[in-house]
Each structure stands twice: as C-alpha cells, then as structure tokens.
Amino acid sequence: MSKKALKNYLSTLPKKELEIQLLDLYNRFPAVKEYYDFIFNPKEEKRIQEAKVKISNEFFPIRRKKPRARRSLAQKYIKHFTVLGVNPFLIADLMLYSIEICQSFSEEKNVNDVFYRSMLRSYQQVIHYVVYHQFIADYGLRIEKIYTIATAQKWSYLEDFSVALAEIKEA
Q: 81-98 burial string, b = 16+ CB within 10 Å, else e?
C-alpha cells in the first residue's frame, strides 16, 4: 500500500475507528509501543545511561567471565536512538563513549585488525556527526584524546585516524 492510498483510507475512517486501529498497533507491535512510550515519556538521559551500561558490560562483563566484545551492540543502540529522535548531543556522547570503552578494552586485551577497522569507521562517523551537528566545541577534546590514546596504543590505521581528526580542525 502506498502512502497516498493509506492517507486516503485513513481519511475515510471515523475518529473512533482510528483510535481502535492505533491501539491495536500499539498492542501488537513492540516498535509502535516503544515509539509512543518514548514520545510521551522520553527519559533520554536514562535510556542513554542504560545503553552505556550494556555496552560496558559487553566488554567488561560483570556476570560472565569472557567478554563478548561485539561492536555491533553499540551501533545498534546508536541507530535505534537516532530513529527514535533522541537528542543528537546525547547520541554523540554515546558514540564517543563506545569508542572510549573499546580503547580501555584494547589496552587490556589483544585485538585483531577487524577491531581497528571498526574503530576507525566509528571514529570517522562520530567526527562527521559532531561536525554536522556543530558540537566541536563540546566534544573536540574527547575526540582528540581518543586519537592520542590510539597513538599511544599503536593502533593500526593511525594515518587514517589522523586524516579523520584533521576534519575537526578544518571545521
């Protein structure tokens, strides 16, 4: 069904029937429920904190012995919060936190080349995000610190990290 057809269909329905359909969607689909829960009670800082705890637990587990170290978990939260419409300032903070946790992890554990490539992509993404939303004054020091730590830990792709960092200085 196209958007136009849906609009035409919805315009023919009485208000009561629209309410019934919306409540049915709310009950059937968790994504719809979460969307409306967020709209009416955002608690953005709380949601970001919970995501940070889960990301941290991914690399430094409390209950299990071995870390899973899946970068995809952080990316999933970032994408989810972006779709929900969470404050971009908080999303940038979460993006940086994710990289910082990974740096702490790589300091203690041996990581492979795929890890460094993923970190480079995340670093480039956060820089583009911060430049786009004009948060350089707020997050510039954290971004530079990430580069400094990556250099101290002798990460792969340091030249590419340097190129990405130059974008902040040009903006």
A: beebebebebbbbbbbbb
